[in-house]
Amino acid sequence: MISLIDGSESSLRSFLDNLPGVDKVGAEARAAMLATRSIKTTSKAKAIDLAIRMVDLTTLEGADTPGKVRSLCAKGFRPDPTDPSVPHVGAICVYNDMVEIARRHLDSIGGREIPVAAVSTAFPSGRASMEVKLRDTKDAIDAGAGEIDMVIDRGAFLSGRLGEVFEEIREIKALCGDRAHLKVILETGELATYDNVRKASYLAMLAGADFIKTSTGKVTPAATAPVVLVMLEAVRDFHKLTGRRIGVKPAGGIRTTKDAIKQLVLVNETTGPDWLTPELFRIGASALLNDLLMQRMKMRDGRYSGSNYVTVD
Amino acid sequence: MRLDVMKTYKLYIGGAFPRSESGRSYEIKDKKGNFIANPALASRKDLRDAVVAARSAFNGWSHATAFNRGQILYRIAEMLEGRSSQFVAEITALEGVGEAAARKQVQSAIDLWVWYAGWSDKISASAGGTNPIAGPYYNFTIPEPLGVIGIIAEEKESLLGLTRGLAPVIAAGNTAVLIASESAPLPSITLAEVLATSDLPAGVVNILTGKRSELISWLAGHMEIDGLDISGAQKSLDGEIKRLGSENLKRIHRFNLDVSPTRMLSFMEYKTVWHPIGI
Amino acid sequence: MSTEIFEYAPAPESRAIVNIKSEYGLYINGKWLAPHSKKRFTSINPSNEEVLAKVSLADAVDVDKAVKAARSAYNKVWAKMPPKERAKYLFRIARLLQERAREFAVLEALDNGKPIRETRDVDVPLSAAHFFYHAGWADKLEYAGFGANPKPHGVVGQIIPWNFPLLMLAWKVAPALATGNTVVLKPAETTPLTALLFAEICDQAELPAGVVNIVTGDGTTGAALVNHKDIDKIAFTGSTEVGKLIAKAISDRPVPATLELGGKGANIVFDDAPIDEAVEGIVNGIFFNQGHVCCAGSRLLLQESIVDEFIEKLQSRMAKIRVGDPLDKNTDLGAINSSAQLAKIKEMSESGSKEGAQIWSAPCSLPTKGFWFAPTIFTGVTQAHRIAREEIFGPVLSVLTFRTPQEAMEKANNTPFGLSAGIWTEKGSKILWAANELKAGVIWANTFNKFDAASPFGGYKESGWGREGGRHGLAAYIKGAK
């Protein structure tokens, strides 16, 4: 096994700078073409259920309360109260100080197997000392978070302090140990170019990310198709180089079933069908779940459903 | 007996039809002295709002493909053709000309929109090109849209005159703040309705009706405006306009009934780019 | 591809939208006439060999009628028409094509065999845009750089190929009409149907009778048109072989001609290329339109230092190409246009193997009826191989390598053709240097197979004479212009 970098910032920089560039026009054209794929009806039903299982049902508002979080948990566990065949979501994603409430509630209603993901490291901006970020993460894991969605320091990345970005991820990963899997949020909207998205993807994977995630959802543009394409290409190539399978999580801007299925097509034709599992692909969303449910109902009942037939969370 | 619903003529700013923030209006009568309408009397603040709208629309409009701009201008011609009779009625009432002359004016205006529609994706091939440098450099010059252009529309031939000014300016990728004919403002607002239904993005064209003696000096002095077409202003005002415009070196032009790509190029800037050639 | 989780639907575009007649006459002077010989031939759907319609075979008598109609229309109507009114006919045609876009897209896919996604997203929109663009020139010719009062030739004879039937019609008819000529057009033998539907557009646009005349037929029809003494100008797109025959045929006549002929385009990938987009570009370069493209990137010139990595990515990507029913919106690669073309592709492919190159085809199941060929690459190809020199006109890529940029240029230019080339590198100065060195009329950098009405297209050397599209393309239809 060839070691890709030797641990020094200069070898990291060298590796990242040697990655092939991304031609914006070409990447966008490829993503746009894949968006025209049409899915078989029988596959669509499976795709909807798969998408539901991939949703990280999220609430990240300043106004979040225990009541809101419990309501979200209930929804994530049993998305459609009238139909027990609907699978539960991939995870519940909340702020740090809501983790304990979420975990307790999920356990109490039978949702023990649904992980709680916590955003951490001074989400969404990432602007705080390393001590605060580590404490942030430790609090979440101690409270029961099985997944940590951290943000990278975009300021450090854009000003060339790649070693710092790398170290932060490495330290958070060490803290997670085997108690939590680590998603690394690149905040692609702030990275501004596809070249940067490719570099940041590799940097995060080299530093130990289990998943690379597009966005905090607080900045637009978020999970556009070309950005997800570039990240999937990086994951595919990283797998070829190292044998490791890293997951991808688009978050932000995926609101309809159509959007979700387009994401699945991107995965299918880039990293391949092995990645079509919640172990390796998640979708950070809130409103999406109801649209998936309505489409599921339409396929089941043969008519368009309405907003009164899906619950608010 | 059936009563017509009378039309209210408001301003056209940012794709919407607001009244003047001053609440003012002025009376328009036909050549026989009959009351026609109370179009808005635009204020300084209305003009300020129009310029803000034009500036924020510039980025999108100047970056649209030339093909797309051409399609929209052609759509304006399509819409105008369909509503000819409304314009003919307004022109005969306000300009004291017969129906035949009015119809000819409207048809000429439509044809002029078509003419400039066809220019938008030709101008850079016509006026741009590569330059032969005495060295290993690739060098090309392209004309680019200037920015926000203030247009003082001709007083007579209200529809055709304003088209002569407006069509080339927006075909070139600029956005516009247009001051309508004071004596015959109605066709300009009816044109605004055509623009609003032609897929023209909001803010690309803004039309103000009112007192030219006020509006012209505010327009000339506004530092956010990049160029002026003063063909419709009285010649005696040229000096004052140019003095006010010199504060930000506006590109100021008076055209003499010209129908020509010069009216586009006068509101464009040439950009020249160099790049070395070599492995 | 996992059939468990994901199957793409056959997402068929309905063919009900287009009304194909069982029989077509010749469109001459605004009317439909029966052919003089009474002979008709069939046009089939190459994806399943189904007969679509019977089409007339025009002979010298019919061609003469068409030329006379074009001449009369020129003298009496078109030459007298004010340019801005001429422009408006072309604008109408453009808008009508946009309105009936789906009909044309479906018909083109049925008659040609190419996928609906391509006809819908490329062929038809480009055709409409071509008319829109040229409409704008009709009344501005004094600004086009050909003098203050440019004049048309008069009656133009135009012969178009089967690979982009509607688009090639637009490339011929739009500039000809915009500059004031009238037209006799001969569509390709295997793909006449969208041209015949275009005649309906001419009627809907109220185009004066005789301005556009459409004479379907075969090689004899084309010859009759080329040899007609009252044609003022000839425009031909097709094979280099036939182009040379035409050049010979007119050598004793003062009739000007423009020719858009074959190519063997070099798609050059440097080691500093944006690799994933370059893979897409190579795939697009040779598999777009089943490789039936004169400017196809049919030779991949790959920098030797990245060969293994690139070929592996290319093969992975090729394995995802969906070959199948052209009317299925998920199809990437459609049918080969005719049994004759399929035979040619097979023959060339066999020569490649025989001459020692290594063949690899994407694993895919091909339909039993119709004409099909899997996307294929040959590695270990050298300039001496037939598959590196001759145009295959199918989904077959020949891969050669180079060590230095200079060697790439040498190999790229080592061909009697000179239509297109592709350059893949992120280094700007290298792009411009290579663009200077390459002897090709169209050079794509970090992209391929891109067309626009405003962009001139045409080749050096045996790839033809003249350009189409853009300001430069007007020259073909203006008397005395270059």
Instruction: Give the full name of the CATH homologous superfamily of chain B.
Output: Aldehyde Dehydrogenase, Chain A, domain 1
**Major sheet summary line of chain C:** 7 strands, mixed
The CATH homologous superfamily name of the largest domain in chain C equals Aldehyde Dehydrogenase, Chain A, domain 1
Helix content of chain B: 40-55%
What structural class should be given to the helix and strand makeup of chain B?
Answer: alpha/beta
Low-confidence stretches of chain B: none
Oligomer: heterotrimer
Class by SSE composition of chain C? alpha/beta
Largest interface: A-C, 28 and 25 residues
Q: Assign an overall shape of chain B.
A: globular
Note down, in words, how this protein is organized.
The complex is a heterotrimer of chains A (313), B (279) and C (482). Chain A contains 13 helices and eight strands. Chain A has 313 residues and is α/β, with parallel strands linked by helices. Chain A has an eight-stranded parallel beta sheet. In chain A, strand 6, helix 11 and strand 7 form a beta-alpha-beta unit. Chain A is globular and about 60 Å long. Chain B is an alpha/beta fold and 279 residues long. Helix content of chain B is 43%, strand content 16%. In chain B, a hairpin with a 6-residue loop joins strand 3 and strand 4 (137-145). In chain B, helix 4 packs parallel to helix 6 and helix 8 runs parallel beside helix 9. The mean pLDDT of chain B is 96. In chain C, strand 9, helix 8 (240-249) and strand 10 form a beta-alpha-beta unit. Chain C is built from 15 helices and 18 strands. Chain C folds into two domains: 15-261 and 461-477, 3-Layer(aba) Sandwich (Aldehyde Dehydrogenase, Chain A, domain 1); 266-445, 3-Layer(aba) Sandwich (Aldehyde Dehydrogenase, Chain A, domain 2), CATH 3.40.309. Chain C is 38% helix and 16% strand. Chain C is globular, with a radius of gyration of 22 Å. In chain C, helix 4 (116-138) packs parallel to helix 5 and helix 9 packs across helix 10. The interface between A and C is medium-sized, with 28 and 25 residues.
